[in-house]
Amino acid sequence: MSAPCFALHGKRVWVAGHRGLVGSALVRRLEAEDCEVLTAPRDRVDLRSPDQVTRWMAIARPQAVFVAAARVGGIHANDTRPAEFLYDNLLIEANIVEAARHAEVEKLLFLGSSCIYPRDAPQPLKEEALLTGPLEPTNQWYAIAKIAGIKLAQAYRRQYGCDFNAAMPTNLYGPGDNFDLLQSHVVPALMAKAHRARIERSPVMTVWGTGTPLRELLYVDDAADGLVFLMQHHSGEDFVNLGTGVEISIAELAATICRVVGFAGRLEFDRTKPDGTPRKVMDVFRLHSMGWTAPTGFEEGLERTYRWYVDNLGSQARAAG
Ligand code: GFB
């Protein structure tokens, strides 16, 4: 394992976006580190406001920052709300990075996304593939904003000598996800649909697209663990992919989720809905050679997520049924 280059011990650590899927997992993970976790209340700090972010940072004085705050959503949300995905994300990341420079934050880790890579980049996706070709149209707005975030971290490192870094998580899933069918990513959407189909004793469940696209999925608590590892072990202009390197087709994913949920009906593919990127799997050589691999098995991650869904959104889920 590579030697640690930054200690979280005794540090004031801001998780920007602490209520989101990955932010809340980071807060859980940081409980195991001997550090003080800072969170900015959403009703007092609008991260799109430079004044509010600067004021918050001046008062909270974090020493380390995880930039997990972002406007996020699945393929439909990305495709239908391009302005929000571009504008909000550009403001959030620019405000945090600039305020972090002024507050002399010791280390910052910006979270990108696997959609930053060109649609037709060679697979698995190596970090070097950035900006080598056109993006997938359904999420180009979000991708452009995330690419700007990577470049901000690199530029502040070059011009101001800030220790600002970036990690590229693959598609994430897990407890705390958004299960709204029109806004969510594929795992929570299919889980909610399978749950409802089982309760309603429906013979069929609808899956968007052709079922052929390939995706890589990382359990969110593993992602949080990997991000803490990168905060401690990586410093440089080069960013690092965070994933498993393992891929699954949407059809196979749907069948696996149905098994976990206990829905035994038929799958129907709605080809009027977009497939998005045909294939998106990370090259995780850089991460693995630093000494980190994802510990949670895929079915185990899905089972934990489903348990969380039933326990936390049970009334909603039952009402839907
Ligand atoms: O997770 P997802 O919404 O986003 O969709 P992306 C992944 C795949 O699942 C697509 C299919 O091929 C969808 O057509 N799919 C099948 C479904 N059924 C469903 C369903 O009921 N709901 C959803 N949502 N998908 C996102 C980007 O791309 O990846 C974001 O839009 C971000 O910007 C994220 O980068 C990581 O994987 O296509």
What report would you give on this structure?
- The protein has 321 residues and is α/β, with parallel strands linked by helices.
- Strands 2-1-3-4-5-10 form a six-stranded parallel sheet, with helices on both faces. The protein has a three-stranded mixed sheet with strand order 11-8-13.
- Helix 1 crosses helix 7, helix 6 crosses helix 8 and helix 8 crosses helix 10.
- It binds guanosine-5'-diphosphate-beta-L-fucopyranose.
- The site of guanosine-5'-diphosphate-beta-L-fucopyranose has 27 residues, from helix 3, helix 6 and strand 7.
Strands of the largest sheet, in order across it?
2-1-3-4-5-10
Which ions, cofactors or small ligands are bound in this entry?
Answer: guanosine-5'-diphosphate-beta-L-fucopyranose
- The H-and-E topology, N to C, reads as EHEHEHHEHEEHEEEHEEHEEHHH
Give the count of helical stretches.
11
Gross geometry: globular
Estimate what percentage of residues fall within beta strands: 5-15%
- SS class: alpha/beta
Distance N terminus to C terminus? Answer: 48 Å
Distinctive features:
alpha/beta, six-stranded parallel beta sheet, three-stranded mixed beta sheet, 11 helices
Short description:
This protein is α/β, with parallel strands linked by helices.
Furnish the topology, listing elements before pairings.
Elements: E1 12-16, H1 21-30, E2 36-38, H2 50-60, E3 64-67, H3 75-80, H4 82-102, E4 107-111, H5 140-160, E5 164-169, E6 171-173, H6 186-199, E7 204-208, E8 214-215, E9 217-219, H7 220-233, E10 240-242, E11 248-249, H8 250-261, E12 266-270, E13 279-280, H9 285-290, H10 298-312, H11 314-320
Parallel strand pairs: 1-2, 1-3, 3-4, 4-5, 5-10, 6-9, 7-12, 8-13
Antiparallel strand pairs: 8-11
